[in-house]
Design brief:
The structure is a homodimer.
Chain A lengths: L15 H8 L3 H8 L6 H14 L5 H8 L4 E6 L5 H16 L3 E6 L4 H10 L7 E4 L6 H8 L5 E4 L9 E5 L1 H14 L5 E5 L5 H16 L9 E3 L4 H14 L4 E4 L2 H13 L9 E5 L3 H5 L5 E4 L2 H17 L7 E4 L2 E3 L33
Parallel strand pairs in A: 1-2, 1-3, 3-4, 4-5, 5-11, 6-7, 6-8, 8-9, 9-10
Antiparallel strand pairs in A: 10-12
Helix pairs in contact in A: 1-2, 1-3, 2-3, 5-13, 6-7, 8-9, 10-11
The structure holds a DNA duplex.
GO molecular function (chains A, B): DNA-binding transcription factor activity; transcription cis-regulatory region binding
Keywords (chains A, B): DNA-binding, Transcription, Transcription regulation
Protein name (chains A, B): LacI family transcriptional regulator
Chain lengths: 367, 367
Amino acid sequence: MGRKRLQETGDGRPTVHTVAARAGVSIASASRVLNGVGGSPETIRKVRAAAAEVGYVPNAIARSLQSQRTDLIALAVEDIGNPVYVEMMRAIESVVAASGRQLLVHATGGQVANETALLRRLAHRYVDGMIVSPIRVTDDHLAALVDSPAPVVVVGQLGADAPVDNVRTDSRAGVGLAVDHLVAAGRQRIGFVNGPLDTVPGAARDAGFRAALAGHGIDLDERLVEVGDFQYVAGRAAAERLLARARPDALVCANDLIAVGALHALLAAGRRVPEDVALVGMDDTELARMMFPQLSSVSLGSAERGRRAAELLLQRIADPALPPRREQVAPHLAVRASSAAVPDVGPLFVPAPTDPAPAPRTPEVTA
Amino acid sequence: MGRKRLQETGDGRPTVHTVAARAGVSIASASRVLNGVGGSPETIRKVRAAAAEVGYVPNAIARSLQSQRTDLIALAVEDIGNPVYVEMMRAIESVVAASGRQLLVHATGGQVANETALLRRLAHRYVDGMIVSPIRVTDDHLAALVDSPAPVVVVGQLGADAPVDNVRTDSRAGVGLAVDHLVAAGRQRIGFVNGPLDTVPGAARDAGFRAALAGHGIDLDERLVEVGDFQYVAGRAAAERLLARARPDALVCANDLIAVGALHALLAAGRRVPEDVALVGMDDTELARMMFPQLSSVSLGSAERGRRAAELLLQRIADPALPPRREQVAPHLAVRASSAAVPDVGPLFVPAPTDPAPAPRTPEVTA
DNA sequence: TTGTACGCGTTATCAT
DNA sequence: ATGATAACGCGTACAA
């Protein structure tokens, strides 16, 4: 009958009550000691001993209910498998983990509906904040972003004056870098394989491509422009369509996945890279360095943007009254063998004959 | 003075009390309606209306404290950027999301200490369970796994009779598949670029390689074996060391990242693939299909293992009394151009002239 | 069906 | 410094 309160949790794990009872002090004292605030030396000793004996571990949920925070950060991206998001996620994870928090990942599939749903779920307060990198933005989506129930920072282009923390890059200018480079290398018929035009990055890159050509006084031949999506398969298909009807001497691709697809399309069509067709990708993921020939690529600083976004978010969580901030990461071009006569996959590492560690059973080898 | 209980949360969001008061019912009735259990038609109407008016959203923390579950699942892997874990993570995320839960990711860097720390943190009950894919296993690590404070399932090899749910593959046999294939293709001097021998996969693959050669009656030349780690850079360095001292006509690599490194080492050394040296990777990630030549690779079913692991975990959460289970995913070999005379990156897609959608502004093109 | 009251496990307040 | 007690927001016995 009515014993007012059990001292153990339902499945037998100790609580503060267990520790307090065992130490012969009140739960308040126990809690204080366990949190390192106050307590006489004797109390501290008794409580610590009791906690150790029963193997006490504080319950994160109860603590969260009290503290009104979960120390969880969410990240929502289109596809957690895309190398560009992988790099971003890595950077974010490291900042988040360093702050003692943990990272939650969501794959949205690029669907606006999924993202707004996620935004709404923030009201449940299961995370302290969210980083979202939307590729499509609608009006009510934007509205949901603006009056989000929890701190949000956006990675990517947003309406110019949306009052939301965001860190962006200038992918328009990024495409320009690629075009400038190709024109300077004497290429005349520069093609473009883009992702969907109804996405923010797709639209920006399309605009950037046209502007860049115009800047060089080049008339754009529309047959040199093709659209797929931001994946390898569709990118390759798009490149094949383009090659079936036009003869580019250079190809700019809206990301590295597309660029790999285009490379394969070119090779399958018997074109040499870069002799016949120069190729430039975008995002400068490690994939670009893994290709042969290695891919020139426009870095949009995805890791850097991720890092900055995480920092902005942590700052806002610490001080929700902060005004909306906007940071910008400049694009830059990495020139590699796919578009220029630079050393390709060369000997990065000279075998270190004096270093015995990695090569155990073969001391006589170097000869 | 003493108003017993506020009807709003500290920062002004509505709670059940707000809704109840507004609907003119008790919080119990409000809660019942909001959870869809009980309530007269009239009460239901009033409560729903009130909830809608104030924009009520239940607090996940409070709900968790009550229900003793968070609907969060954790995943701990060495490196969230490694394509093999990306594929696993994708598969897990999809199962987890389909069950209405969310996924938390941890990067352990392959450090045992980090993993045991993570295991201990489970006692905080911030997640309902965890999937962990350890590459190094020590005794106390195993002990921590066995009496984990929350359900855990392990992806990877574990001591034969450890009472822990786990889904494994036979990477020993997987290496055998690669060796069999190469021997059948007439290769004589088969080399092996492995990851660290103090890891579970590294040790298993080393054993598998030696056993396979022995099975074919081939004497292993130790100069044909090299060790780096499971990354591209070290893999490439290891391959370069190997090539500096030996003349393999085939190379088996312990994963695809290493295989890409080895491919580059071979190309830099002027060897043709597969003519001079046949190359087989492991894990069969999409990276293998993206290379040129496309890489043969031994699939260890990482996505499938992830999916199964997630399902095992959900089952155990539903019924903790289940006996420990062990599932096995068989390896299989994907033969591609890097090790055989099969069609390489060929025309996957015929341009669809009847499909106007992707090529907007160019009706006259096909001519 | 409805309302009262308690418990989930913790931290914070406020007397003492 | 310490202890009783009130939150945190929710679900649910139990009694009416």
